[in-house]
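Budget justification aside, the reviewers requested a transparent look at the raw inputs and outputs of the sequence design task funded under Objective 1. We therefore reproduce one unedited record. The lines immediately below are the structure tokens for a 258-residue chain.
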């Protein structure tokens, strides 16, 4: 692992379950980030959690003691995808007001009914039954169906809460249609990260707590993967599919290699 970390140019680091849980910073996380930056590595936080604006996450990281961070979310990837492929189309967002405000600021045309050309579902901590019905009606009407990210659960201090993938599964059960997922582990995300930082996939290390997002993105893109056992995935969950290159208990264990 030491040589792999030494030769890497960019760390792509998850947030929920990797460096913090809720408002609790995980042991050694701040020191790891500081050491990574001092060693000359580029460092990018990436979270699939699109329920907040980028500015909100940066403020939280600063409040928790992580200084001068760079950040990208699955919401950013979704916005880029919409602007590239559906710039003049209308969009219904099953998501938080924070996600909606980010989309509006980017010039995306949002509507509040099932007439939308595109339905985007996400991790909606403000979910109502009315919003769910509108999304399902829009999908049944033939709208393009996108989801910001596939995570089933969001780790919190003391357990988990349903995430974007769980909400999308409900819509699929009602409508019979699967969304096109964005965020980790999909190629649009790896491409956006590499383009933003000017690196090649093989020069990147993806660090996170989920096999089917953090580790799968690394496998799909040709990045090195490091799984931490501080969040969703436990040791007994690891099998042949999306097996990480390295496994550690937490990011605290990585500081010794910097």
């Amino acid at each position: 692992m030491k040589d792999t970390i030494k030769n890497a140019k960019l760390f792509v680091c998850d947030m929920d379950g990797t460096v913090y849980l809720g408002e609790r910073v995980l042991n050694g996380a701040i020191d790891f980030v500081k050491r990574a930056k001092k060693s000359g590595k580029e460092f990018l936080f990436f979270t699939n959690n699109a329920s907040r604006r980028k500015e909100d996450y940066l403020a939280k990281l600063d409040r928790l003691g992580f200084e001068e961070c760079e950040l990208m979310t699955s919401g950013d990837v979704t916005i880029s995808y919409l602007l590239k492929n559906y710039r003049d189309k209308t969009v219904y967002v099953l998501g938080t007001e924070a996600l909606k405000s980010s989309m509006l600021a980017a010039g995306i045309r949002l509507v509040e009914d099932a007439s939308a050309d595109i339905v985007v579902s996400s991790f909606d901590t403000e979910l109502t039954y009315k919003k769910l019905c509108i999304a399902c009606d829009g999908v049944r009407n033939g709208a393009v169906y996108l989801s910001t990210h596939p995570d089933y659960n969001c780790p919190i201090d003391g357990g988990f809460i349903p995430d974007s993938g769980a909400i999308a599964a409900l819509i699929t059960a009602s409508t019979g249609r699967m969304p096109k997922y964005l965020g980790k582990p999909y190629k649009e995300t790896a491409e956006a990260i590499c383009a933003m930082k000017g690196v090649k996939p093989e020069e990147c290390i993806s660090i996170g707590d989920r096999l089917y997002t953090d580790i799968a993105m690394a496998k799909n893109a040709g990045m090195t993967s490091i799984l931490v056992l501080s969040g969703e995935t436990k040791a007994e969950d690891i099998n042949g599919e999306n097996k990480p290159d390295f496994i550690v208990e937490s990011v605290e264990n990585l500081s010794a290699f910097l």
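The domain at 2-48+184-257 is CATH 3.40.50.1000 (Rossmann fold). The mean pLDDT is 94. Computational costs for records of this kind are itemized in the attached budget.
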